[in-house]
């Protein structure tokens, strides 16, 4: 499903080199649920970005859903991304579209029938408790609401892989529990899940396989 | 997919608001400027063509031929290359037209003891014969006629005409090129800026796996619609401007360049203008595909 | 504060990259187009002035005055309003110039038993006397002279000249206005778009308490610098263009409109162009203050 | 210091009215440290926005630092904002400027001397542990780093009032503790602090006066 082999990522900020990931290798099977944890700046987001090829690794090989992501053509990258649901840490909602349109958009680009789109979009919105805010624009949402809208968009296509970057970062405990329940449901239905969080406590309560990053190195892989 | 693209393009147009309006207005202005220039040079071209039609080369004859000799002579002249037409002018006719030219001083002619003017042939050259080179060759051919005493007129006038044409063409080319460049740059800059404003958006679209066509085609269609709209408005503005300016300009034109009507663009010209607008807009939209934004 | 504003403006310029370059190029192109038009109309104006200098009104006299009478007559004519100069043309001189005009047909004149041409006075009107109205009045005054038989020339020529001027002025005004409008719209659109792209930024600046001046003055200064730069480039392009085109155009010009040199902008004209650029840019920058963005 | 009298805020999203705050009143004295808590979407951010007048209340009166914020002219609003340090929930760093320039900017607009600016900016960066990333642009930061940069910018002017909207939302526990320690330091030196968080646990551990919002109503004011 996911295979990283000696992956490193070094960002260049002017003349300064910022090593975000160093020599990371792991394998993730189909249907697994893995938690990626580590302190702020450890490289969690950087690692996830490599999986859907927002960034290319400086070194190493990556395979996602059977595809060598570093070698894909631009069109193939877009196809790969359509089989991955991503909850971005900063939500990344399209600013000029309402919450509903944001979710409908990802269905429209895959050619889903119009009638089906409405039904599925509202199902997803109801799941995250946002159906009353469907017509609001992203700027009109609280941060927690934006994050839930991003989750709704990530799950509406029911892809084989779900990547969630701090999906509960801006949520209170009760709502965080609800969101985690949704993600677990999706996992139960067969989706492979990789969830990043800086909350060590959360990682523990999930009681799943945990990858721990520290300053870009994989220091723990257990559970 | 078509429904999706058209839907996205329409929604973008609605949302773009002031930017879209500005882009349309800029395309309109550019095309109006180009159109004004086009209409003017089209009408000047007509004037030049008319002037060219009026070019005459005069062959003065050594002696006045007898009426019986004239047809054969004229036939020989008309058979020469680059001769479109020829008219025989007898001595008496020459004197009559001299009187007309003298006008106020016509009395002079009446006091002449005999008619001093020679008979002549007024040759109308073809278009090729009215160019400086063509006229030179034609004059040599005419001068070679055994009946010809001297060949005059035409040459300098044709040269002068060609100078005017070159002046107009040079200036026109300069202004036209500057305007076209400005139009293209304007459209591409505004679309680049629009794109920049929404780079964030296209980036997100790519991240959620939207195919390139779903991102680019709506932009292209949007640009095309804007360009077409701009061209339509430009055409309208030109038509209205022509309608208003024609009664004003036409008397001036007939007094100066000798053309009595200010013609509007021909239908193929209008189609070209519309196509230019659509092309400009689509080009801008294509540029706005947003792979690389601004620094 | 000044240091802050200048620093911010410079950093914005550096950062704006392609957008800034586009804005500068657009201003340059607009001003080049305006400048080309300006140079052309300036030179046409010179041609018109020269033609006007050549306008002559001819007063035909009833009888040839005796050489003793001529000075007094000329003095009276010269004393009339709107008369810049006057030249007496005796009967003999008139015949000589008729021969020159007839050229090829000069033999006609030699065969005349007596000189049928009248003596005349060639009047050069002042600038005021060369306008259609002024010429009309002057002709009436000249016709009122007891010695005058008929007054001719001048009037139609002056009328014709004024038609030319009106034609040029009308077309020029139209093209000039379109270009100026396009330039202003281009600059304001691009600054609006730049502003839109950074609305997010000015909003944050306001939220952290930056005073309005700290937000707006750098934008204004930046626009001014861009405009000035655009104008300088335009001036340079015009100068180079003039240098290259002059040897080409000047022979054509002297053959057509009778002006042998293509003059460049005068120093005050250059300053005006620079000021126009700076003003355009600053106007755009001022617009970009960013209170209300785009829809 | 801060006085709210029967304040309500209703957003309009097209035809829909979204009541974010309903009839909120409270008083905050100089030198207090108050925690604002409540679930996602309760109205915490909306309340804070009213204090530095990013938004106007639909009803009610607000006084901040002795000024009636609803009645201030535009220039006075800017002056008021210069005496308030704000850590925005979404950081709001100037995207075109480096971390260092972002912090220097707020000092430059108040006319601080050039030499002093460098010294104070780096002091603030060191305090939040970001001096090594001074030359990075906001897009080159992890979300936790961006939040710390925003904190550095909020404290560098040493204003009398600090408003912090979820300053630890994107930080792991160890770093969150550090950040809270910084804020406490600032409070000890005399600054009034108002800190919003959705983490009930965090609110409890701070053991300070706590205002709790629920669906826009102030349901608890204790401690
Ligand atoms: N585009 C970039 N350019 C330069 N450096 C970057 C870029 N993105 C991230 N970094 C740096 O790489 C390191 C890892 O960042 P990353 O976002 O992966 O951390 P993270 O584990 O997700 O942190 P957080 O919990 O705060 O989100 C950080 O030091 C960050 O500053
Ligand atoms: N600009 C806006 N336009 C319309 N509605 C808005 C706007 N800003 C916030 N809201 C709505 O007001 C309510 C309160 O939002 P607010 O951002 O204050 O919540 P919050 O308590 O800060 O939540 P979070 O913990 O998720 O940040 C939410 O329902 C939100 O959707
Ligand atoms: Mg992260
Ligand atoms: Mg909030």
3D structure, described in words:
The complex is a heterotetramer, with 2 copies of chain A (223 residues) and 2 copies of chain B (295 residues). With 223 residues, chain A is of the alpha/beta class. Chain A has helices at 44-51, 74-82, 99-108, 114-127, 143-155, 173-188, 200-206; strands at 2-13, 16-28, 33-37, 59-64, 67-68, 84-87, 161-165, 192-197, 209-214, 217-222. In chain A, the strands form 2 sheets. Chain A has a 6-stranded mixed beta sheet, sandwiched between helices. In chain A, α3 crosses α4 and α3 (99-108) packs parallel to α5 (143-155). The longest helix of chain A has 16 residues, at 173-188. Chain B is elongated, with a radius of gyration of 30 Å. In chain B, strands 2-3-1-4 form a 4-stranded antiparallel beta sheet. Residues 290-295 of chain B have low confidence and may be disordered. Chain B is built from 10 helices and 4 strands. The two termini of chain B are 33 Å apart. The longest helix of chain B has 45 residues, at 212-256. Chains B and C meet through α2, α5, α7 and α9 of B and α2, α5, α7 and α9 of C. The complex binds adenosine-5'-triphosphate (2 copies) and magnesium ion (2 copies). The site of one magnesium ion has 4 residues of chain D, from α1.
What's the layout of helices and strands?
The complex is a heterotetramer, with 2 copies of chain A (223 residues) and 2 copies of chain B (295 residues).
Chain A: E1 2-13, E2 16-28, E3 33-37, H1 44-51, E4 59-64, E5 67-68, H2 74-82, E6 84-87, H3 99-108, H4 114-127, H5 143-155, E7 161-165, H6 173-188, E8 192-197, H7 200-206, E9 209-214, E10 217-222
Parallel strand pairs in A: 3-8, 3-9, 6-7, 7-8
Antiparallel strand pairs in A: 1-2, 1-4, 4-5, 9-10
Chain B: H1 2-16, H2 18-53, E1 57-61, H3 70-79, E2 83-89, H4 91-102, H5 107-110, E3 120-125, H6 132-143, E4 148-152, H7 155-197, H8 199-207, H9 212-256, H10 267-287
Antiparallel strand pairs in B: 1-3, 1-4, 2-3
């Amino acid at each position: 499903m996911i295979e990283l082999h000696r992956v490193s990522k070094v960002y260049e900020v002017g003349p300064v080199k910022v090593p975000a990931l160093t020599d990371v290798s792991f394998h993730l099977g189909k249907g697994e649920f893995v938690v990626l944890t580590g302190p702020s700046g450890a490289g969690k987001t950087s690692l996830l970005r490599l999986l859907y090829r927002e960034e290319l690794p400086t070194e190493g090989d990556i395979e996602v859903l059977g595809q060598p992501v570093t070698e894909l053509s631009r069109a193939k990258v877009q196809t790969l991304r359509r089989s991955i649901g991503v909850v971005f840490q900063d939500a990344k909602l399209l600013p000029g579209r309402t919450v509903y349109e944001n979710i409908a958009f990802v269905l429209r680009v895959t050619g889903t029938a119009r009638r089906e789109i409405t039904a599925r979009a509202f199902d997803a919105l109801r799941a995250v408790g946002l159906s009353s805010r469907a017509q609001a624009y992203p700027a009109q949402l609280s941060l927690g609401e934006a994050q839930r809208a991003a989750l709704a968009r990530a799950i509406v296509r029911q892809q084989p892989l779900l990547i969630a970057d701090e999906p509960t970062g801006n949520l209170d405990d009760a709502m965080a529990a609800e969101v985690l329940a949704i993600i677990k449901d999706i996992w139960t239905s067969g989706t492979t899940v990789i969830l990043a969080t800086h909350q060590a406590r959360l990682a523990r309560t999930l009681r799943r396989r945990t990858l721990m990053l520290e300053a870009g190195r994989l220091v723990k892989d257990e559970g | 997919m078509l429904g999706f693209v058209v839907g996205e393009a329409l929604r973008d147009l609605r949302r773009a608001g002031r930017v879209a309006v500005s882009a349309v207005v800029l395309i309109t202005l550019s095309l109006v400027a180009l159109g004004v220039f086009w209409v003017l040079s089209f009408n000047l071209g007509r004037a030049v063509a008319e002037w060219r039609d009026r070019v005459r080369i005069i062959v003065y004859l050594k002696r006045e031929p007898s009426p019986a000799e004239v047809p054969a002579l004229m036939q020989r002249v008309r058979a020469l290359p680059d001769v479109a037409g020829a008219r025989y002018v007898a001595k008496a006719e020459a004197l009559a037209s001299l009187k007309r030219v003298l006008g106020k001083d016509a009395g002079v002619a009446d006091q002449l003891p005999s008619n001093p003017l020679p008979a002549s042939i007024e040759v109308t050259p073809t278009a090729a014969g009215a160019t400086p080179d063509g006229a030179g060759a034609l004059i040599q051919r005419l001068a070679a006629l055994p009946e010809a005493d001297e060949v005059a007129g035409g040459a300098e006038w044709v040269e002068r005409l060609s100078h005017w044409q070159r002046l107009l063409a040079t200036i026109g080319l300069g202004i036209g090129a500057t305007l076209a460049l400005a139009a293209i740059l304007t459209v591409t800059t505004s679309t680049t800026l629009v794109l920049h404003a929404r780079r964030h958006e296209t980036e997100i679209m790519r991240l959620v796996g939207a195919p390139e066509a779903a991102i680019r085609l709506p932009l292209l269609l949007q640009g095309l619609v804007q360009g077409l709209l701009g061209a339509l408005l430009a055409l309208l503005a030109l038509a209205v401007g022509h309608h208003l300016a024609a009664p004003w300009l036409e008397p001036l034109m007939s007094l100066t360049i000798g053309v009595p009507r200010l013609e509007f663009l021909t239908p193929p010209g209008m189609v070209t203008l519309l196509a230019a607008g659509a092309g400009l807009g689509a080009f801008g939209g294509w540029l706005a595909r947003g792979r690389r934004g601004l620094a």
